[in-house]
Specification:
With 429 residues, this protein is an alpha/beta fold. 38% of the residues lie in helices and 22% in strands. The protein has two domains: 223 residues, Tandem AAA-ATPase domain (Rossmann fold), CATH 3.40.50.10810; 195 residues, 3-Layer(aba) Sandwich (Rossmann fold), CATH 3.40.50. It is built from 18 helices and 18 strands. Helix 1 packs across helix 2, helix 10 runs antiparallel to helix 11 and helix 12 crosses helix 13.
């Protein structure tokens, strides 16, 4: 396999390790590095756990690049799963390496995976196991791999308190309690008359350089894009959108009636936050008009990020009216045909389904119809077009309602923080 020099460097640096983490920026080819490391480790059985949207990408990668050496199984398919277990359970030596691929949501429900041993485990986007109390994380920590390969561009999104699960998989024998004492500054705040332990917002972490050195000692490899390539300029263009009277009425009264007599009731912080965002998006005709104007202003490919299903319904209607070919990536559909074939296509991507892992450098324009409240998803979404192979400047159009929750969300995301209910509450003060 032909690899870039920096990919070779990653493999050579970790050549003597069987538990590794490749923390490399999006676009640097972590899939190639991880797959090649797996091949060099030489385990007969290998398990890849990834996002649902990436299952086929991993299957196709091994089929395309290791056609003679690897036999591939899709563990989201019953027939392929049955064949995998039939062959694994046999005692004869297999001439080819076995690679099984499954998504995180399904993996923890397959208890039979716990009986695998002496295998290589690849976790694509290992940041998805930050929460050590989640079922999928507990399940993965209960697996018994001989080798571990972690892949992520943003292993913690800058939140080092969430790194312990990955540290554990790398074989660093430090308890969660000791790790938190040594590297995280904790404070206790009174919220709703109750003491809540949280990371100190002013001085969150300590001994960060020592932490990264320890990670390197346990197989972590770090690399930023700028160390390898000079990518084109990124240009962020806020598009100011008027708020609607219903938004202002809702923020004042926590109650408003919108189209078709739908009543929005902000009877909790979560509901108020949700409906405030909807009133800035799908219920705001000014934003829909601004989107239509953007579409008409260019015949170039557009990537559009959105949150809610109703947003997609209204946005695709606009695209259809303007006779633009449409692709979609969401929880129900992954269809990039129009993106691949039509220069004037519009690709609508729901954050959770497509902010990570997609290579969309045929486009150089992203429209944020609404913003995610998750820092990691926002950062990763930018990289869908700003990656290896991109030769044009990248433009990011952020449709932003004036004097609204969206301004607070963007401000928080620019600080690489999640926008939480607590921050929403503060914005009310």
């Amino acid at each position: 396999m032909n690899l870039f020099p920096f990919q070779v460097q990653a493999l050579e640096t970790t050549a003597n390790r069987n538990r590794v983490a490749y923390y490399m920026d999006m676009g640097l080819g972590k899939t190639f590095v991880g797959a090649e490391k797996m091949a060099r480790l030489g385990a007969r059985v290998n398990l890849v756990i990834c996002q649902k949207s990436k299952v086929n990408d991993w299957l196709n990668h091994f089929i395309s690049h290791y056609p003679a050496a690897v036999r591939v199984y899709n563990l989201t398919d019953k027939k392929s799963t049955a064949l995998f277990w039939d062959e694994v359970d046999r005692t004869e030596v297999f001439p080819a390496t076995r690679v099984a691929v499954i998504n995180y949501e399904l993996a923890w429900r397959r208890k039979e995976l716990l009986k695998l041993n002496a295998f290589t485990l690849i976790l694509d986007e290992s940041s998805l196991i930050q929460n050590d109390t989640a079922k999928r994380t507990k399940f993965i920590l209960d697996l018994n791999p001989l080798n571990v390969i972690l892949l992520s561009g943003t292993p913690t999104s800058g939140k080092y308190e969430n790194l312990w699960t990955q540290i554990h998989l790398l074989g660093w024998d430090i308890s969660k309690e000791l790790y938190n004492r040594q590297y995280v500054n904790w404070v206790t705040e009174i919220i709703d008359d109750r003491p809540v332990k949280m990371v100190d917002p002013e001085n969150p972490y300590k001994y960060v350089d020592r932490l990264k050195d320890k990670l390197r000692q346990h197989g972590a490899f770090f690399m930023k894009t700028e160390e390898c390539f000079t990518l084109p300029e990124q240009n962020f263009i806020p598009v100011s959108i008027p708020t609607i009277p219903e938004y202002r009425r809702f923020r004042k009264r926590k109650l408003v009636t919108v189209e078709d007599g739908i009543e929005l009731v902000g009877d909790s912080i979560l509901a108020e936050r949700l409906y405030s965002r909807m009133l800035c998006g799908q219920y705001n005709p000014h934003k829909l008009e601004a989107f239509a104007d953007l579409v008409q202003s260019t015949n170039e490919r557009l990537i559009v990020f959105y949150n809610f299903n109703e947003e997609l319904t209204r946005l695709t209607a606009i695209a259809d009216d303007l006779k633009r070919p449409v692709s979609q990536v969401n929880g129900a559909v992954k269809d990039l045909t129009a993106y691949e074939e039509a220069d004037d296509s519009i690709t609508f991507i729901q954050y959770q389904a497509g902010a990570m892992g997609l290579n969309l450098q045929k486009a150089n324009r992203i429209v944020y119809f609404t913003l995610t409240d998750k820092s990691e998803l926002y950062e990763q979404s930018k990289k869908r077009i700003h990656r290896i192979g991109q030769e044009r400047p990248c433009f990011y159009y952020i449709l932003l309602c004036k004097n609204s929750v969206e301004e607070h969300i963007l401000e928080t995301l620019d600080m690489r923080r999640d926008y939480t209910d607590e921050l929403f509450k503060e914005s009310e003060d």
